[in-house]
Design goal:
29% of the residues lie in helices and 25% in strands. The chain is of the alpha+beta class.
Length: 369
Amino acid sequence: MTPRTEDELAAIIKGADAPLRIEGGGTRPIGGRAVGARLSTSAMRGIVLYEPGALTLVARAGTPLEEVEAALAQEGQRLAFEPMDHRGLLGSAGTPTIGGVVAANVSGPRRVQAGACRDFLLGVRLVDGAGRIVRNGGRVMKNVTGYDLVRLMAGSYGTLGVLTEVALKVLPAPQAAVTLRLSGLDDAQAVAALARALGSPFEVTGAAHLPGKATLLRIEGFAAAVAYRAERLAMLLAPFGAVTIEDDPATVAATWRDIRDVAAFHGRAGDIWRLSVRPTDAPGIMAGLSGVEALYDWGGGLVWLLAPEGSAQAIRAGVNARGGHATRLRGAGADAFHPLPAPVAALQAGLRQRFDPRGILNPGLMASM
């Protein structure tokens, strides 16, 4: 089923007597195997409103992400949260949509400085599990009516409602960007270097570590300011080794696109895990695992793993011991999402009962939560 309008979608959900499998562009097959008839939002597309002067864009949920980014680029603007493209990592096809980005709260390397997708979400329209059309939030940052519900929808993976329209705050694109590169650091040294950079006044917008390869930092902004900040940051990081500054625009863009999309793991066999941990805990977690490869982002707060099949118990044990979360994005098994503490699980169940009383929206997708 591929409704073209919000009213068609509402009628389908209201009349449903069996589970529905909600999809946007079909590029993020994450979580437990959702059951039910396929319901796609891909036909509900188009930019409804774009006001560059107000830094505001409103688009229907099925609008391709590339269409949104192209419209912004024409005005010298961008989505500040830098959403990744999961297709190479997960081996999926389809076209990423802006609704899918919001539903999964997809946020890239710039999150360390700008914030996550949910931080730029101004308003939403959705159809809940009872077939009711809900409008929440607004189209400008001043309008905070129902703000918590707007943020709640980011990362709900279609289990609370089917997004039909999203309003986002956008930001100007930078004039220049550079990458600072260090080599030869082990994981603990790299995390320490990234922490020093992120704690500096030089406004780092990317902080990653590729074990055995390089430790990378990004600075963006006006050209003169970027050059000054990069030079000063290189001096600050001198105790960690020689710093190379790369300023070729194409090279810088390619480097951070590869980090954003975890290109190092594309086309390789194994399970893909996404760990959310305290940066200082990341090296210790990795030291306790065998047969895995890692890529550190967000200063070490986000760790991507390429792991052998059947590694779930060891990975979860290491993360649980330090109070983090581990999500398996690719691999067999029903326990893709990290189990929640009982009070949080009860709260989540209550929310689902409120928004989807019949339990028909993506049932089982986030079962372990």
